[in-house]
């Protein structure tokens, strides 16, 4: 069992020798790829150095193009510091980062998003990464903090980088950072882990690059708020070989051909059934407004577009790459809604989600994956709205009524609204 995330480098955490003796690391094959380009995406101006500097160093040494995108300037690393105000700390960290990557990164892109606030700026992160990933060669590798690292900024960056890479068919790998401290080896069970062996030169170069981040590895002053973020105990985890978790690639779906052939195969924009269903769903929501809604299996995103009028932000996710182009055309005029590639088996995206929409998707998902989404929504305190057609289909795992009964039986959830007619059913569940 893993413990709760901890972000204090002086915490003892899981000893490094426990990790190194674990089956996940002991049996991990060596990363075979030798990409002609590497894109490192970091939440803060040291994540890439800690998790993947050796990989970047070796890529640059082999002549590959190395680009680094940094979401924030790291101004939040020392809240309450009497020595450096956030603006001064940001300038210090940017300078340290530039020095640490000298001779390695051919280009560094700084987005200047707020440290500690990336969950609320997810759409901007997507918009920034899409053209950069689109310009990469076919054999490129994207690396980013692990989407399960426990740090909210790391998880959003890892989540978004993987989603953008998946849609483009670009390989992506995650680099654990804080998970080495708070996590335990079972956290890696069932995942594709790869080892990046570092020779003496690469290890020495990485040690020097980490040392360049003086504001993080040494106290700013004797004041408690100025403590070192990265203590020697924490840095032990980054002294040897590097370890990557391979992000799942996009897989073909049963719906791809339909979207390629028809664009909107179910006439979601015009059919009365679809328009009436959306009206009932919106009328069933118990709150007037939501912060962040996610529609799983959004298809053409016609429902997501209408949800945008009731939410501060709406994210539509779908596992079908051909569906995403159609969905984007639907959301062209919705400034607070966007699309990402995501298989439902990956769970919900990182972020402060308070509404999850499962429309015409529950009877296609494996029972375990469907239950996992419901449990995750409950654990995040989100409302869940379910809507499903009552017809029959050979490709449905269960009838709509059974799917809704399974959802209603989720421990810790209660039904607060329902609709039943001859065509479809709607249920709204909230945490009990």
TrEMBL record:
Pfam families in the cross-refs: Methyltransf_25, PIG-L
Superkingdom of the organism of origin: Bacteria
A GO molecular-function annotation: hydrolase activity, acting on carbon-nitrogen (but not peptide) bonds, in linear amides
Gene3D superfamilies: LmbE-like, Vaccinia Virus protein VP39
Alphabetical keyword list: Zinc
Record has Cell membrane as a keyword: no
Domain Methyltransferase, first and last residues per copy: 294-378
SUPFAM superfamilies from the UniProt entry: LmbE-like, S-adenosyl-L-methionine-dependent methyltransferases
GO annotation terms (biological process): glycoside metabolic process
Keyword Cell membrane: no
InterPro entries, per the entry: GlcNAc_PI_deacetylase-related, LmbE-like_dom_sf, Methyltransf_25, SAM-dependent_MTases_sf
PANTHER family attached to this UniProt entry: BLR3841 PROTEIN, N-ACETYLGLUCOSAMINYL-PHOSPHATIDYLINOSITOL DE-N-ACETYLASE-RELATED
Name of this chain's protein: N-acetylglucosaminyl deacetylase, LmbE family
Organism: Agrococcus carbonis
């Amino acid at each position: 069992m893993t413990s709760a995330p901890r972000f204090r480098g002086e915490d003892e955490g899981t000893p490094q020798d426990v990790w190194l003796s674990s089956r996940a690391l002991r049996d991990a094959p060596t990363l075979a790829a030798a990409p002609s380009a590497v894109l490192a995406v970091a939440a803060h101006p040291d994540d890439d150095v800690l998790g993947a500097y050796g990989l970047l160093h070796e890529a640059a040494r082999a002549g590959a193009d190395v680009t680094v995108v940094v979401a924030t300037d790291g101004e939040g690393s020392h809240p309450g510091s009497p020595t450096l105000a956030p603006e001064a700390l940001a300038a210090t960290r940017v300078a340290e980062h530039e020095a640490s990557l000298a001779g390695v990164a051919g280009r560094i892109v700084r987005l200047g998003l707020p440290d500690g606030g990336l969950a609320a700026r997810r759409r901007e992160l997507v918009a920034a990464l899409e053209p950069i990933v689109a310009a990469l060669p076919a054999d490129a590798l994207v690396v980013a903090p692990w989407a399960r690292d426990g740090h909210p900024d790391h998880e959003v960056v890892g989540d978004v980088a993987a989603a953008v890479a998946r849609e483009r068919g670009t390989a992506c790998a995650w680099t654990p950072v804080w998970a080495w401290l708070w996590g335990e080896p079972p956290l890696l069970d069932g995942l594709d882990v790869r080892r990046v062996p570092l020779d003496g030169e690469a290890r020495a170069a990485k040690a020097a690059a980490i040392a360049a981040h003086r504001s993080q590895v040494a106290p700013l002053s004797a004041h408690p708020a100025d403590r070192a973020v990265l203590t020697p105990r924490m840095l032990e985890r980054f002294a040897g070989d590097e370890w990557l978790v391979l992000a799942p690639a996009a897989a073909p779906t049963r719906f791809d051909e339909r979207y390629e052939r028809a664009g909107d195969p179910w006439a979601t924009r015009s059919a009365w059934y679809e328009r009436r269903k959306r009206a009932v769903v919106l009328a069933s929501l118990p709150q007037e407004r939501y912060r962040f809604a996610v529609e799983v299996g959004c298809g053409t995103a016609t429902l997501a577009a209408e949800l945008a009028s009731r939410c501060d932000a709406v994210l539509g996710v779908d596992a079908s790459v051909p569906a995403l182009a159609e969905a984007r055309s639907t959301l062209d005029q919705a400034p607070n809604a966007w699309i990402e590639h995501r298989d439902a088996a990956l769970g919900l995206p990182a972020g402060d989600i308070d509404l999850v929409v499962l429309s015409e998707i529950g009877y296609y998902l494996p029972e375990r994956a469907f239950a996992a989404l419901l449990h995750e929504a409950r654990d995040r305190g989100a409302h869940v709205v379910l809507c499903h057609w009552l017809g029959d289909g050979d490709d449905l795992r269960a009838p709509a009524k059974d799917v809704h009964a399974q959802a209603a039986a989720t421990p810790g959830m209660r039904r607060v609204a329902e609709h039943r007619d001859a065509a479809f059913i709607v249920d709204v569940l909230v945490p009990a």
